[in-house]
Amino acid sequence: MGPNTVFGHLAFQFATHPENLATEALSFVLRTSPAASRAFTEFLRPIGLDCPGGLYFETQRGGLEQSIPDMKCRDGKGQLRVIVENKFWAGLTENQPVTYIQELFHQLPVGVAALLFVVPKARLQLVWDEVVRRCGANEVPVGNAQKLASMTAASLGEGHYIAVTSWGALLDALFTAATSAGEIGPCNDIAQLQGLCRRMDETAFLPVSGDELTNLGMARRIIDFSDLPFAIVEKSVKLGLCIKRKESNFRYGSGTYIRICGFNAWVGFSANLWRNLGVSPIWVNFYPESCATVQVREDLVRFRTAAPQRCFDADIKNYRWVAVPIFLPTGVEKPHIIEEAVRQIGELKDELGLRGPLAAAADPTLTDDLDKEPEHHPESEANE
């Protein structure tokens, strides 16, 4: 997953309707980048759209019944060929999709035209189902759905289509085209918009599916992941790999503080890191304290360049800390998972330096502050 961007951060923090900012950003890219404009037309070519002279883009222009589509795309003759409606997590308005479909037929009774919804990947099926349901309720005939490479589409008759695609699919196509054309400015602009889309994906409440509510295995797995770190730390302590400090749970995770090779760390289940970085639900986090994380980064350079990568930087609430995933083996029982996790803790200890609890007499820094309260974990503050 790519990094967040300044545009994504500011839009999320200060915009009441991020969709409007995303629409203006997309329109700006399409109007200023010849490569992206051509790529947009190519993106819709699978449904038969062919505009040799290109498309012209306008935003927030009124339509039938006081509707205001996000973006209208006209050909060189001024004919309306595409209406684009951009969504993150807002629902469909009363005019969507039926009034927009009527406007397409009103302005171009016969010919290839499309109503395109651009939504987060997680909403593709939900939005498509709702669009088809509303068409049926208003006696708008919709043909069989076509699962194309970049979108789902269906014929409305007379060359018109309704389609839904994801932000990721559309922006990837535009970015690839701009990159191939050497358009540095538009590439940067598209990357900024991609950052906003990632930020919206990260902060959204995903629609709940029936499978999730009836899948009790998911609830059991969350409990397993929440308990696992404590078993890992307990065995690591017995083997002299670290010193246990105190348990510390927060809104999206559970675990315990440890001391390893003179560094303070937290071992636990982190739903945030699992969502943002993937890799694993269990992490060893070295949180900011003076310059300790600088030394950790230097010591773990081999972890950072390993394949797969074994060390990441995590940024939360202006904290920049070091996160090391514990890779969990699959298809094995819990004792084997714990054994493998402890082995990785041992590798981490060796990488940080051959010091440990058993060397406390020679290195007082390992124990001189064990009675002190561990520093506030960044994720606990981030979730307040």
Brief write-up:
The protein has 14 helices and 13 strands. The chain has helices at 6-14, 18-32, 34-43, 98-107, 124-137, 167-180, 184-203, 210-214, 216-238, 271-277, 292-299, 301-304, 334-352, 378-382, and strands at 56-59, 71-74, 80-86, 113-119, 146-147, 152-157, 160-166, 243-247, 253-260, 263-270, 282-286, 312-316, 319-325.
* Lateral strand order in the biggest sheet: 1-2-3-4-7-6-5
Q: Note the total helix count.
A: 14
Low-confidence region ranges: 355-368
Radius of gyration from CA coordinates: 26 Å
Report what the structure shows:
The chain is α+β, with helices and mostly antiparallel strands. It folds into 2 domains: 6-203; 218-382, no CATH class. The protein has helices at 6-14, 18-32, 34-43, 98-107, 124-137, 167-180, 184-203, 210-214, 216-238, 271-277, 292-299, 301-304, 334-352, 378-382; strands at 56-59, 71-74, 80-86, 113-119, 146-147, 152-157, 160-166, 243-247, 253-260, 263-270, 282-286, 312-316, 319-325. The strands form 2 sheets. Strands 1-2-3-4-7-6-5 form a 7-stranded mixed sheet, with helices on both faces. Strands 8-9-10-11-13-12 form a 6-stranded antiparallel sheet. Helix 1 packs across helix 7. The longest helix has 23 residues, at 216-238.
